[in-house]
């Protein structure tokens, strides 16, 4: 194999692809990136047996071929090269020569035969959606994906296509996040995408209106983003019937400035840390929200004047869970709905139903 290409393009491609490379693998080739030079393009792949990222980049192909190079070393070498044009050449002994200006390296590669094939699958369904919208949808829900492997199904998000609505749902047992968007599709399908896969997809998505193609199979999914493809297994299992968990009543409701509530909860959060986790106590009464937090560190109080409709209620919540929900709303105001001290707190837009967050309350000890 012998190729030449632009250094900046190569750095960008290796940086993105190497996020799917194993750091410690039983198969040494999985700690590398696979380079394939054919048909006037250089294809670079990284794969850790769960997630694969692959991309095509422009290159001058002098001799076709393929090689596996250690991802970390290869990336560091290319980053440090002094000029823009890089030449990469391999010989029959798998020695790779990297030349740029007056600098040259010789590093030992591995045969591509040792590199496991990325999954291939038959497409059963698909979604086309703008990069900007998908980025918002993943960002506004992935925070609620569970990290507890005891129930693997909840370490991913439910992707659901239903009656022209594309919906992402994440649950971790203490909170739930739902983001919906109207799409031009008649498909009716649902599947669960691992949280780790979504985080990698999120890093590749931009705020542009360019389309992202999502191809769905029986056990795998591919996100096609510009020149990149992210392939991942799907999580098998039965996801919670989330619709039945959303409270239907509105015994207490209010519309509140999002930033004002975030600031107040953050002030209460100063008394909590990794070792100390006390609930934020919140009393809704007489058009006034009284927040307080008492821990071994001390005590804090705050008051927000705000219109409240319905019953008075006092409720406790985890400050971090509440902040995650509020900070991922992207609206100046939110509507909060409460149905008593032990019923989930619902946060949704003032108009429409583009998002919905639920925070399970914490039980409060009686205060003297």
Q: Any overview of this molecule?
A:
- This protein is of the alpha+beta class and 368 residues long.
- The chain has helices at residues 7-17, 71-80, 131-139, 195-204, 258-269, 319-327, and strands at residues 2-6, 32-38, 41-47, 51-58, 60-63, 65-70, 85-90, 95-100, 103-108, 125-130, 156-162, 165-171, 175-182, 189-194, 211-216, 220-225, 228-233, 252-257, 280-284, 288-294, 299-305, 309-310, 313-317, 333-338, 345-348, 355-359.
- The strands form four sheets. It has a nine-stranded antiparallel beta sheet. Strands 6-2-3-4-17-16-15-10 form an eight-stranded antiparallel beta sheet. A five-stranded antiparallel beta sheet has the order 5-1-7-8-9.
- A hairpin with a 3-residue loop joins strand 3 and strand 4.
- Helix 3 packs across helix 4 (195-204).
- The longest helix has 12 residues, at 258-269.
- The termini are far apart.
- The mean pLDDT is 94.
